[in-house]
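Narrative of activities, Objective 1.

The group set out to show that a structural description can be obtained from nothing but a protein's sequence at a throughput compatible with the screening campaign. Below is one input-output pair from the validation batch, recorded exactly as produced.
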Amino acid sequence: QVQLVASGGGLVQAGGSLRLSCAASGLAFSIYPMGWFRQAPGKEREFVAAIRWGADSTYYADSVKGRFTISRDNAKNTVYLQMNSLKPEDTAVYYCNTVADTRPTNDWGQGTQVTVSS
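Output recorded for this entry:
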């Protein structure tokens, strides 16, 4: 059974930074492209960033390009999201998932709340 557990969220002022982590288990992590998604109150879940299995290719939503960086450590079965220059509109629950292009391919696991105050 695949388990995806995100952590590292919190409350931060606009312009600040956070680093999210997502630990995966129950799958051959190193062969899967991974992605981050977020869901703000009253909105649909949206794609944020993705990284290929070899970490040689990354892709970002326009809204976070240049501010967020996705990375992975296959030895630790973990994917990261470094978030800089945070804005109030980044406030959401953040989730990770396996992906095909920008589409999630597994059940959702535990997310982590990010709140950016103005």
